[in-house]
Amino acid sequence: MKESKNIEFQLPEDLKKCIEFHGHLCPGLIYGYMVAKTAMDLLKLNRSRDEEVVAISENDSCAVDALQILLGTSIGKGNLILKDYGKNVYTILNRQNKKAYRFSRKKHYQYQGKPKDEFVQLDAAISSGTATEKDKRRHKMLKSNDLLQRPFDDIFSTEEVDSVMPPYAPLARSEACATCGEMTMSTKMVETENGEHICIPCAT
To answer: pLDDT tens for residues 83-94?
Structure first.
């Protein structure tokens, strides 16, 4: 497919960090970037060093990686909670001021940028399965750039919600599974009828 005149993509430095972590630029990453930036502004957030910020994502999409980089949320720290409902919805909480906002993508995406004809052609090629890898990359670039130019409120609804703060990440000692011998978090173990403690894989 013939490519239109190249477009200059002026990427913010913090977005470049998200791309470096994620591996590539894509619309999903942009959604997470936009949510994180808006949440940081509304909740007066800095990047979380510990668990000061909590992100609850109702999907496991590319957007989550932007939340990790900008908000400092992660599975390992316990302040990134995934509820894989497949919904473009994110709730960001600030433990310090006990405030939270829920962001929900509110409508189907429609391209508003330029060149419109090229995007329509690429979109059709992807839908029909005839797009090349170069076509797919170009499609992502055009869509990502378009999203970056759009007002946040055009894409997401924003609602302040009651902040029921999740508990801090639990800490517990590890002990050897009575069956396989592998060290396992004690609170994750299953007690057998004879009083032994075994890991979940051995119990199933």
So the answer is: 999 999 999 999
